[in-house]
Amino acid sequence: MFISPLHGIMNLMSQAKTQKGIRWIWVIFGLFAAFLVAAFGMKAIEGVVSFYMTVDELANSDGQYFGRRLKLAGYVLEEGFVQERNRYEFLVAHEGHSIRVVYEGIAPDTFVPGVDVIVEGRTEDGNLFVADHLMAKCASKYEPGEAPAYWQSE
To answer: How far is CA 9 from CA 34, 49, 99, in A?
Structure first.
């Protein structure tokens, strides 16, 4: 005969004769419910959260992040840059290390060889990163321009 956990809790409550006993049962039930909510929450977040690292940090991680979701930062090398419609293959490098990236989708206008990028996706086959998001930094938009002559002090 199958006895559900809820049935067992109800039996405990009926057997508890004092107010103190009932209070402890509710405390245990509350802790169990909180544990379940936390466990399901952690499992749900696991698929959404991605680590941020540079290419050299990934290269020195000994495969620890293989298959995990990552945001990977570096700059695009000119060598090996291939674009076929909305499919891009390129090398992203940082401090002497590089990784081949494959991205399918619409790239920003600022995405060209030599630009700093952040790609989001997963590592596969050793030195391959399959990206599903691509962000390119345009340095000229973030650097202050020349101040007009009338703002400059004499």
So the answer is: 16, 36, 55
The answer to whether the CB of 76 falls within 8 A of the CB of 119 is no
* Residue 113 in domain: yes
Q: Rounded distance, CA 19 to CA 26, Å?
A: 11
Q: What is the dihedral of CA 53, 59, 64, 67, to 10 degrees?
A: 80
- How many domains, in total, are found in the chain? 2
Q: What is the pLDDT of residues 67-87, one digit of tens each?
A: 888 899 999 999 989 999 899
In one letter, which amino acid is 26?
A: W
Neighbours of 113 (CB within 10 A): 13
Reported as a single tens digit per residue, the pLDDT across 121-154 is 998 877 899 999 999 987 665 555 666 666 555 5
Q: Which domain holds residue 32?
A: 5-46
